Amino acid sequence: MSMNGADLIVDTLIKNGVKYVFQLPGGKLGPLLMALKKREKEITVITVRHEQNAGFMAQGIGRITGKPGVVMTTSGPGALNLVTPLATATSDGDPVLAIAGQVPQDKLLTPYPQNPNISGVMNDSTITKYAKEIQNTDVLADELANAYFSSINGNPGAVFMDVPGNILLGETKKNGLEFSTLTKQLINTIADDTTVVAAVDKIKDAKRPVIIVGARAAGENDAEAIQSFVKKTGIPVVETFEATGLLTREFNKNYVGRVGLFNNLPGDELVYNSDLVITLGLNLVEYWASVWNVDKKTIVDIDTVVDHLDESYIPDILVLGNIAKNLKNIANIIAKIDISDDWKATIRIMQEKLMMKK
After folding, report:
1. CA dihedral (325, 312, 287, 273) positive or negative
2. CA 196 from chain center: how many Å?
3. DSSP assignment, residue 323?
4. Whether pTM exceeds 0.85
5. Quick one: signal sequence residues (predicted)?
6. How far is 38 from 33, CA to CA, in rounded Å?
7. Which ranges in the chain belong to alpha helices (H)?
8. Containing H/E element for 318?
9. Higher-confidence residue: 184 or 217?
10. Which CATH number, 1.10.1040.10, 3.40.50.970, 3.30.750.24, 3.30.420.40, labels domain 3-186?
11. Which of 27, 29, 49, 257 could form a disulfide with 354 if both were Cys (CB 3.0 to 4.6 A apart)?
């Protein structure tokens, strides 16, 4: 069945489980809005009053689901208004797929309304992981696949596709691609047994261990694995502000609050006095290592990616892959940790300080 480029984009989004599109209408977005209208029973369009709102809402979907939240805008100022949310998503490690309608190719970089070089602006590693102006209708589904994977592969972030109007309206015999099964393979990789055993040995040798939970470990499956691990080991836990809420009241005896860049909370003090830190999905933007690792602690990093390395952050053991599965594998072979009475006393003191701050 013949369709146009806008139909091809929407068909590909639906085939890969996209449920919501956040957008603010504009002239160059018209073909995509028409394509979305045709499939309104399969995908929900949420209209906002400013493109930044749409971008941040898409970031929220990305953070909650681990899959790219989708935002669409018109050209010119519409797309430029996405710079802040896309840069934030990339910094915070949240997958977002942004698609902008653009002027026709023969009007690009001419004195034509709403016609700045958007893909050039977006093609900055601090804003997006991938930014491209699409040149051919037939490759739209291919480019969507590459953009989608770029947004979730490694450290997640924002990606941007700029699609000229004639490409959106161009006819194609291509069909939407389905690639979501590949994403499941990507997120299900686990560390080898040797690495898992090495991590267990480091944890068992510690006298004052602590867990820092970051945003990349804030998923539902991660939360269950973290709770099981804490229940078995008894290791105290602190969270970054972006990972707050992973532990229930059942774990009050293990919880020492949040940590932050100002380094003025009881959780910060606990980390400072530890000898081993288990970082779970920690994006160092959330909690700079130079704040808490001045004395070069032993670090076991359990994460989906290798974060920024510097003199303050070189993990002794890197357990790379699916956080929940790797943590469960560690828990399966580790015994209850023998936490010293001195460390238990320090934990209680920090918890008392935490209660005084509430």
Report:
1. positive
2. 24
3. H
4. no
5. none
6. 9
7. 5-15, 30-38, 51-65, 77-80, 83-92, 118-122, 140-152, 165-169, 180-187, 193-205, 220-233, 266-272, 289-292, 323-333, 341-357
8. strand 317-320
9. 217
10. 3.40.50.970
11. 257
